[in-house]
Please model this.
Amino acid sequence: MNRVKFGQTDLTVSPIGLGCMSMSGCYGAQDDNECIATIHEAIDLGINLFDTSSNYGEGHNHELIGKAIRGRRDQVVIHSKLGTVHKDGKSVAGTPEHIRASTEGGLKRLGIDRLDVICISRVDPALPVEEQVAGMAQMVKEGKTRHIAISKNATPELLERAWKVHPIVALQDEYSLFVREPEDELLAACRKHGMAFMAFAPLGRGILAGLFNAASGIAKDDRRAKDSRYVQGNLEHNLAIVGNLERIAKEKGVAVATLALAWVMHQSGRKGGAVIPIPSSKSRQHLRENAAAASLTLSAEDLARIEAVCPPDAVAA
Model:
């Protein structure tokens, strides 16, 4: 699998990453052994960028990844979000104390000496962004992480302020055929600063993977049940779009998930710098469909057809 430069760093990563959130119960039950096998196969396929968080499974995600990468640490790039934490009704996610505790706890659970990237899970509105970046920069100074990044709640103005404190190597936000808001400003801001853009939920939280149908709907205990894209009425509309995308995918002999992820990767250079999707997967079957996107080339005509089927304002939400 080819490699792309990860922001203004010496890291080179796969053009598609592996989001590990679903490996810790966020989207229903998971099997730890299958998850570890999925991580191993991802590495074998050439995927080396793994996204995790202190929040996922209250540390379970880190421990699981730590088991999976034992003896293969030099083959992976670990991007770990610091987790959103509230205390006494107030957010403390951006405080130096939380940044330190999350970083050091992550190192212990993962069983490694240094993280590749730590990332604010979301810009904490309770604190100036400069203070939050300074807290992460201290972890760089102490050798506990190589680089720092930001996820959610970021704006071009906040990125400008953050960069005055310390280089930010990547921005992570939701981006897919179904969520196009980052195209307005964030992708341009990433290009300006030479940052990678990590697209989480690049399969629309599963709907673009063809995982749902109108008859089955969403289980009540699934966190996606609260997503407006999945409520009755909107779900049927959005599934019709997926059906049209499936027809294009079938012509190319790939799964609709493969097509949707390839579209995200093809935004690299068109609208920003490196745009790296990080679909979450807890099984080798879905991993293989996702990884196939890295070798799927879409022509200008293909991209135009996809845009015609799913323009930015097509989704009911």
Notes: The mean pLDDT is 91. The two ends are 35 Å apart (CA to CA). The chain has one domain: 4-205+262-297. The CA atoms of residues 148 and 167 lie 8 Å apart.
